[in-house]
Every structure is written in C-alpha cells, then in structure tokens.
Amino acid sequence: MRRRRQLIASAARSQKYVEAPVPAELLGELSDDLLKLAFIPYASRSNLSSLYGPGLDFISLVSADWREAFSQGALRMHNAKTISFPTHIEMANGEAVEISISENAQEGGPAWFLSYVPIVEHMKLRRDCVAEAKAESEKPRLPKEPLPALMEDGFAGMQESEDYLVNPVPLAVLNELDSMDAEFSSFVWVSQRRNEQIAEYEQRNIDVLELLNRDWDYALSNRVLRYYEGKVIFPVSIVRDDGETLVEVSIKRDRGAERPGALPWHVCFVDNFARQKVRAGHALFDWAYLGNFDDTIESLAEMALAEKWGFEADDEPKSNSILKSYLTYTFYRLQAEGKVLENRERGIAAFNTGLVDATYEAIYACFSPSNMEQPWRFEAFCKAGSRMWGKKLVASFEPLPQRASYVEKKDDLLFDGSRTLQRDVDHILLDNIDRLPKAFLAEELRGADDAIEALDKTMHAEDDTSRRAAYDELREAVEDNVRIKRRLINRLDDAIELAQKRVEWNFKTAVPAFYPTKNTMSLLLPLDLTENEQPDVALVVELMESGAYIGQTILTMKMAYNNARLICRPDSDWLNTSLRLS
Fold it and tell me: Smallest Cα–Cα separation from 48: which of 95, 101, 94, 6?
C-alpha cells in the first residue's frame, strides 16, 4: 500500500502530469469509483490480467490504483477525450505504468471506458528485472565456447533461394548500411531476449554478439541479404530445425533512435522455423505435368457436386480461382500425409481430391508416368471402378487413396469464449497494413499528414515496387506516431471484441481453416473495421499450448475463404463467395 502511494505520488509531481492537469469542471464529473465511472472492454481485461499478474483480482487492483490516483490528483489529459493515470506497477526505469480512460460515445452505458492498457510483452517492468537478476545470479558462470564455423555453403544456399532472389534490399537502404562501416553491434541493439534466443538455437554458450558481428560482415560483403516489409534479413551460422537451412536474423530501424545513447537499428526477430522443403503452392506442379491447368480445373468443376468456384465480386466469377487454390493445397496436404499413392509397375499414381459428384461418389485424380521434368502426367478425374482410369485405380490400390485429414480435436472446430485471446498487434497492423481497408486507414490516420501522404502513394503507385515502397513508408509513419498507432489498436480491439460477441451468439461465426504453409489448423473471426456491418478482413486465431488463443494475423476475404474451403464448404453468414472482398 505504501509503495502504491509513493509511486503514484511521484507520478503526480512529474512534469507531464503537472503540465496537463484535468480541468476542474471535468474533474467534478469524475468519481473515485472506477467501475461506476467506466466500462472495461474484454480486450482491456485480458491486458489487465497480464499486467497485474495471473491469478490476481485485477479489477480490484486497477480500481484501487484509480482511487489512489484520483485522491492524489495524479490524472492528466492525454488528449481532449482521454485521461491517463498511473498504477502501482513500476517500469524498469522507475516510472509508473499508465492506463487510460476515454469518453464513451455509445449511448446507454457509462460515460467513460478503459481505452488503453499496455501490453506487458512490449514493456520492461521492475519485477521482471528483479526476477532476471535473481536468475542470472544463480546461473553458474561458464566460459564462452568457440563460435561455430562460418557456414559459407549455407550462406550460398540462402542467397540462391527464391526469398533472396526476389526480395533484394533497396539500394538506398543498402547504401546506408554500407556507410556504417562498423561492427554490427555498434549500430544494432540486441536485446537480452534476442541474445538468449540465438544462444538457445546454437545450444552452446557462445558470444552471440561476436557471432552477429562476424556473420553480418560476411552477409553484407557478399550481399546475402533480403528485404521484407521494412526489415533487413540475413542468415547466421546456425542450422534450423529442418537440418538444412540457416537461422535468420531480422533488423529494422529503431523509431526511438533519437533518444540519447540509442542505436539506429535493432534486432526485431530471430527465425528458427523449419523451412518447407517443398513450397506449398508449387508441390503439385513440381510433381505432375497438368497440361492446360484451366481446362483441367474446368473438367473437375463439371464433374464435382455443383458449387460456386469463383468470387462474385470478381470480373470473372467463372474463373474457378477457388477450385484452383483448393486442388493445389489439398495435394500439398496429402503429400505431407503420405496419401498420394504411386504404383510404377502398373503405371499409375492417384490421390483423393476430397470432392464428390452429384451422387456423392468420391472423385480421384489419376496420373501416368511422364518423360518430362515432372515424374507424373495428369490423365483424368474419375470415380472408383468407373471407365478406364476408375478401373485401373481399383486394380492398382487397396485400399483406395484416402482424403486429406485436418481436424484432430474439437478445439480445431469450436472457439472457446472462456479462453484469453491475445493478438499480435505489430504483425496485424504493421506487417499486414496492406491488407487493411483503405477507408479504415484513411479514417484512422487523420491528423497524421505523413501517414496520409504515404497512404495516398499506395493508391496511386504505378507498379508493385513503388507500391511496396509506399507501404514501407506508411509502416514507418504509423510506428513513429504513438497516438495513431494507439488509435489503430483500439479500433482493432473493438472489432475483435465484437467478433467474440458474435461467436457467443452463433458458434458457427468462428470458421475452421487450414493454413497450408504452417500445416496448422486455426479459426477465422470476422473483423468489421469500417462499421458497415460487413467484415473487411478475417482474424486468424490459433490455440496455443498454454490454452490461450492468439490472433496471429489477418487475411483478406479471398484468402480466408480459400483456407476455409480446404476443410469444407463454409456454412457461414459472413464467409462466402458473394460478400464484399478486401
């Protein structure tokens, strides 16, 4: 209790509180009872639980902090409609963590709502420092082991991969990095967490900064670099879990580089995920020659149970774009499961398409050996025992090829509203800013001239390269403007909260989907960001081992439908072929 008073009193005396007091007239309308004064949204409750600590009564704790802040006058105007107040949670720099309430524009509820609760993962708290210091003091001091040998062949392999060939670093960025003419660690900040990650992947006690200095110098000198959404990515001499490709380190500019002593770049990601040996979208075409793919797909559409295989919003609703995606990624899943059957002696290979005809007979794809680059050549779609290839299929395989399997447990199909739902804000709002509706961005970026200018460039870009550069500029503008980013986060959280309410009302709102490149199941939730009662994008929700959900990313409506159709034809009031598509 004493510590709470001291920390909040200290905040009240700070310059930012002294210079932005709440006007007396407004102060008279407030109350020291937070629960009567303000509504606490679902998303804020989740963040409060993480901030105050698991298992604690965070509602009582935040109410007590508000009461103490109110009594000490530790309230400040963040903007014309938002009031910030300190809590008893202390950051590593000794300052109090702040929470904000904003005016509630919705009728019939409290006059205010809890509009901002910081994400713990994005902060350094004093309690974390204490725990880390204790853990560090208990660690045995081991001598550093020699660095792994520089894997020049691994670097060459990465340089020749598609990711590096098609995503070069822009010349202006490359020139800037060349001009540094210094060790990596002298201009790139590496957090303790990233340092420990790299050491863990190497599984030895090495000097991580020394490794990064050496491998960055080699990567930069030999141009083994790639560029993705404002990040420069390079490999290091540590092999991923796939046993073949190298771990990659991503760096990006630090938006707080103006701070005294800050470095201009920082390590933002370390990628150890196993690379796909076969690219999901290319697996079928690498395995078989399909002739004219449009004709092949059209023959399947004619044979299969009637279904809309194109989007009505497209200029070509009969393009069968959905069926093309479906067959391509179904094959990839079947190949991963070992369900693509081959019989060289009888000259046939086959797989189950997962589709049926009008009488609900399974449809199979049959192939013969090829003398071209691909080992097999498409011959026909057939039903078991019917016509030449159907008879050959039955004569060659027992049992017949099985359908792809996706669902392993009920959690793959049903969203549990009692579980916590977190979201990857940076990936959703920054990395995938190009998937957000233009109308939504135009509305939320108001007042930020540099961001509006960048958005305008994205809409009038003459080619893909110019458009990507404009989106990079937009990402930097948003990331540099805390007010705008917070506004986007609040709108995102509002949309997520509404989606969760829809699921409570109708469990079918959460649509099961399969994410091919990660080989994982997920649930799709509709996000209405433009308030026109139609979803703009879909939130990809994945159940983690901890039992919590995480909103990993967002998909356009087309992408969402294609991923959901791999499981079955969506029976949904929001995800179908006729809705407006982002």
Answer: 101
What are the residues facing 103 on neighbouring strands? 112
How deeply is 141 buried, as exposed, middle or buried, from its count of CB atoms within 10 A (0-12, 13-18, 19+)? exposed
Token output for 20? 């932005």
- Dihedral sign from CA coordinates of 77, 78, 84, 90: negative
pLDDT tens track for 229-282: 788 999 999 998 777 889 999 998 876 555 555 688 888 888 887 665 567 788
- For residue 191, the model assigns a pLDDT of 81
Please, how many CA atoms are within 13 Å of residue 96, restricted to the half-sphere of its CB?
29
Separation CA 239–CA 248 (nearest Å): 9
User: Residue 567: what pLDDT?
Assistant: 92
576: buried, middle or exposed (CB in 10 Å: 19+, 13-18, 0-12)? middle
Find the mean pLDDT for residues 34-51.
84
Query: Could you tell me what percentage of the chain is helix, strand and coil, using 3-state DSSP and rounding each to the nearest 5?
Result: 45, 20, 35
Q: How far apart are CA 497 and CA 510, in angstroms?
A: 13
Helix axes 482-505, 464-480, angle to 10 degrees: 100
**Is residue 491 classed as helix, strand or coil in its secondary structure?**
helix
What is the enclosing helix (H) or strand (E) of 456? helix 449-460
The pLDDT value given to residue 366: 98
Q: Do the beta carbons of residue 541 and residue 551 sit within 8 Å?
A: yes
Tell how strand 231-239 and strand 226-228 pair up: antiparallel
Distance CA 126, CA 95 (A): 9
**Tokens (6 digits) for 580:** 């407006």
Distance, CA of 507 to CA of 497 (rounded, Å): 15
Phi, psi of 470 (to 5 degrees): -65, -40
Per residue in 423-464, pLDDT (tens digit) is 988 889 988 899 999 999 999 998 888 899 989 988 988 887
> Residue 397 in contact with residue 341, Cβ under 8 Å?
yes
* Token pair belonging to 51: 């901030």
The pLDDT score that the predictor gives to residue 582 is 46
Asked whether the bond before 399 is cis by omega within 30 degrees of 0, the reply is yes
Instruction: Count CB neighbours of 413 within 10 A.
Output: 15
Instruction: Give bridge partners of residue 580 from the DSSP assignment.
Output: none
